[in-house]
Each structure stands twice: as C-alpha cells, then as structure tokens.
C-alpha cells in the first residue's frame, strides 16, 4: 500500500519537475521576445488581439491576455483544487500527524513575507496592496530544482515541500477571493453559490458523470463569478471541491471480478476463431470496461486528464503572456530601491526561508509535530529557500494588486530576480548540507 503511494507521489513530482523546465523555457522566450527587435509584436499578440466567445446574449470580447489569465488559468486552479481535495482525503494533508509540519511551515511562509512587504510599504495605500505577492510558492520550479539534485535530497523533503506548496496555494486562493475583489454584484455571486450547492448535492446523491460537473461549473460558476467581480479563476477551486472522490467498487472486489473476467475471456479465446471477437468476447470486454470505470474515482480521472494540460499548456502560456519584461540598465538603480521591489525581494528571499524554518523549528521543538524521516533541520531551511520561488502565483497576484503598468513591471522584475536568487541559493545550500544517498 505504502509502496503504491510512493510510486504515485514519484509520478506526481516527475510531472511537476519536468513542467518546471518547460516553464523556464517559456519565461526565457518571453524575456528575449520583450527585449528583442520584435518587442512590438509581443504586446500586439497578447493585449491587442481580441477574441469573442459566448452563446446568444452571453458574449465576451476580451484580449488574448485576458482569456489566458481569467479563462485558462481557471483550469490551473481547478487542478490545484483537485490536488487539495485528494491530499485532504488520502494524501499528506489527511491527518494532523501528516499535515502538521507542512501546515505550520506554510503558515510561517505566508505570514512573515506578507508582514515584511507590508512594513516596507504601509505608508502608501497603492503600494501596500501587493502584500500577498511574496506569499506564494511555485511548486513546479521548486520541485524542478529538487529533481535536479537527484538522490542528494531525501524523498521526505520533497513530500514536505509539495504539501507545503499545496497549503500555500490554498492560502493564495483565499487571499485572492477575500482581499482582491473590488465590487461585488450579489445577484451573480448568489447564482454561482446556488450552483456550487447543487453540485455538492449531485455528488451526495451519486451523480458521477464528469460532463455534468464541468458544464455546470463553466456556465453556472465561472461565468457568474466573472460577472460578480470575484476573480473567475476561484471557480476552478470551488468546482473541484464538488467532484466525487469515492470509487464505486473496492480494490479487493475489483481485482477479484477482473481476474474472473480475464479467465472467462481466455476460455472464449481458446474455444473460438481468433480472427475476430465473438459476441461473448465483446460482452466480456464491455464488462471489464464497466468495472474499470467503477474502480476509478471521477476526481482522479479528471486530474489525470487535465493535469498535463495545466502543466504543459496553461502555465507556459501564462508565462509567455506575463513575463515579457523589458530589462534596462538605465533604471536599475531606481527599480531596486523602490519599496515594492524591496518588499517583494525581502519577502521572497528572506521572509519565506525564515518564516518556514522558524515556524517549523518552533513546532518541532515544542513537539507539536515530527520532522520527516531522513530529513534534517538544515534541509528544511533549504526547502524554505526554494519556497522563495514565487513566480506563477506571485505574477498572477501582481496583476490583481496593481492596475498600473509601471508598478506591475517593477513587481514582475522583483519576482523574477528574487525567484532566481532564491532558487540558486536554495540549490547551493542543499548541495552543501546534503549527502547523496546510495
């Protein structure tokens, strides 16, 4: 049982790790593009190209940049919601014994960076709106660096960082929903809430058709939230929490029934012409398909289908559309001393590592939680450094926090450079304090 869980987790981090490489490539292309002779084409594609979508009177005409950040990113948040629900049910967040350390560490990793940013920007009402930017952790980049280190870091550290990042994502989602909503249209919000309740009811009464949840989620939750003023991507997490996670058949019964059907099919194969399948053989295969569907929960099935789309299409597109920053050495002095820049830089590089390590150390010393097997305190500090790679979620919050291009550019430069420094320092630190396992 535990061996299967380990294999499942290894598959998870391999996907996340490789997506980090793709994300790095997309970021490099965007930065080159924005600083090349084709820079004018960058804004023309992402902000000047409009697409119309809708049915009947429900029409939206928005630039490509908008469809990526408010539309496709809902898929990314949907996958995050599925991961959160799965981890809460059977994963590393399913009990306080498992979730205690990552939960407390994530709390420190959110509170301390946000506090640092706020203290550096509290005098300006516009600047301080970016307090949530350094809270986030980019799991793809962080796990990508851990994967590059191979057996030098223990599996327990990778599990810790993954669980921490998932809690981190939940904190960022709640921050977006609560603090980055300007005007609320209660009629739309009420309708979306009604559909969410309906989806939970459908789950409870045993409706397992995936298309029901996806269509109701798109039409009944995403669009009303978009019109309500609450950021539409939150719909992804809310709908994900309504997806059925239970299986219709137990593993032992599934294995027994499938073995019986395989034996039955083999007997039919031996006794009949093997050039084409007989009606009995077709019926047996149909029975196999039905019990296989019963053995897989809708949550796991959707996650398996959508996760590659989120990791290898949505996130790279988001990086292409959001990281095309023009770098100039002429204004570097003004940028690096700007309160928004320093707030984000100190928050991600120093606040993240001190918050995660400090809260973890205290919880371990007070014996509230236990450190994972094979992991040392020095390695937890290294994980805290890697958690300073904010990137995807930090960029996303930047677009919500600052409406002026000037502040967004300063914030994005801070996120990019701080994430780079946090990643490099974290990797060097872990190489120094970790010995490769045999």
What does this structure look like?
With 438 residues, the chain is mainly alpha-helical. The chain folds into two domains: 2-180 and 231-246 and 297-433, Up-down Bundle (Na+/H+ antiporter like fold); 251-293, no CATH class. The chain is built from 17 helices and two strands. It has helices at residues 2-34, 39-46, 64-89, 96-121, 139-148, 155-179, 186-204, 210-228, 234-240, 251-271, 279-295, 298-322, 332-336, 339-365, 377-386, 392-401, 405-433, and strands at 50-55, 58-63. The chain has a two-stranded antiparallel sheet. A hairpin with a 2-residue loop joins β1 and β2 (58-63). The longest helix is centred in the first third of the chain and has 33 residues, at 2-34. It starts with a helix and ends in a 5-residue tail after the last helix.
Shape: globular
Briefly note the structural class of the backbone: mainly alpha
Which residue ranges are poorly predicted, with pLDDT under 50 across at least 5 consecutive positions?
none
Percent in strands: under 5%
Helix content: over 70%
Q: What is the name of the CATH architecture of the largest domain?
A: Up-down Bundle
Fourth-level CATH superfamily of the largest domain? Na+/H+ antiporter like domain
Question: How many β-strand runs?
Answer: 2
CATH C-level category of the largest domain: Mainly Alpha
Please give the largest β-sheet. Answer: 2 strands, antiparallel
Please, how many helices? 17
- Look at the structure and give the mean pLDDT: 82
Number of structural units classed as domains: 2
Oligomeric state of the chains in view: single chain
* CATH topological fold name of the largest domain: Na+/H+ antiporter like fold
Question: Mind telling me the C-alpha Rg?
Answer: 24 Å
Q: What is the strand arrangement across the widest sheet?
A: 1-2
Secondary-structure element sequence? HHEEHHHHHHHHHHHHHHH
Q: What is the CA-CA span between the terminal residues?
A: 24 Å
